[in-house]
UniProtKB/TrEMBL annotation:
Assigned keywords, A-Z: Membrane, Transmembrane, Transmembrane helix
Bilayer-crossing regions: 6-22, 27-45, 57-77
Record protein name field: NfeD-like C-terminal domain-containing protein
Record organism: Pararhodobacter marinus
């Protein structure tokens, strides 16, 4: 399982590219989660060896890191106010 660290990194880069293409703030947390999971699998830190050996635990680690990254980015970047523009007057009505 530890030889597939590059798959996590590639998935993270693919999700980051998808974040740029798709409007909204949807894939950034998943991209960060995939890259961090790939880095942990690649480094194979002694405290994470049990995660590296199990796909289910790697996916769980990915999910937890992704949600945490999304929440942190949402708190730091904030919600944009006034994203929707409401038009009350049509120029053709005059």
């Amino acid at each position: 399982m530890d030889e597939f660290w590059w798959v996590w990194i590639a998935a993270g880069l693919g999700l980051a590219i998808l974040e740029v293409i798709v409007p909204g703030f949807l894939f950034a947390g998943f991209a960060v989660g995939a890259v961090i999971t790939g880095a942990l699998v690649w480094v194979g830190m002694p405290s994470t060896e049990w995660i590296v050996d199990s796909l289910v635990l790697s996916l769980l680690m990915f999910a937890v890191i992704s949600v945490a990254a999304w929440l942190v980015m949402r708190a730091v970047l904030g919600v944009r106010q006034g994203q929707m523009k409401r038009i009350d007057h049509d120029i053709n009505e005059d």
